[in-house]
Amino acid sequence: MTDSTSDGDRLELLELPAEERYVEFLSWAMRTGCVWALRGRGGFISLSDDEGHVCFPFWPDAATARASATGDWSDCQPESVSLDALISRWLPGMSKDGRLVAVCPTPDGSSVVIDPAWLLRDLLEDDAESRDGFTP
């Protein structure tokens, strides 16, 4: 699915507070049917939060993921992950392995770090609301 929003408009998302980026991430994921990760030579990248938890970062679109591909991630490329794969494989697997999700991290490292089960719940709630004709 595509959207007519320009990359420049999407990059403004990175200037929002982390909680607002999270809400936008949920909305964008539901509209487009995918999220984006960064993939390098060794596979998908991960990071550690302030408490040392391993987190897998996801962004709502390729432009915001690409904008975060700096420093150690400068050789990484955005890769889409279908919402179906995120819900059915990624999040349950991350939960089982004790990993967390970093939602829409910015180049300076700020993000919402969340348990995959909570993100799954929020995505499923958004999906149920959209099927009921709910529009925020």
From TrEMBL:
Which InterPro entries has this protein been placed in?
DUF2750
**Superkingdom of the organism of origin:** Bacteria
Under what name is this protein listed? DUF2750 domain-containing protein
